[in-house]
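Hey,
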Amino acid sequence: MAAQLAVEYRLVPDDARSEALFLRALTTLDASLGKEHPLTAVVRSRLGHLYQSMGQRGKAEPMLRESLDVIEKALGTDNRW
């Protein structure tokens, strides 16, 4: 899966490849599972963390907020996940 390969490129690090693969994975997951699916939220969160590590906080924050909203809807706001 593209998201798993994106994680590997983060470790190398190859931020450009990682970003491209995360975006590809998000496009696929948004279309197949929907934006409100927890797996989609996890990949969106990982992309947000990549942007954060690249110093692109303007891109990171919306990704992380969207991810948090989905996870809170799925697990509740008092869940420690």
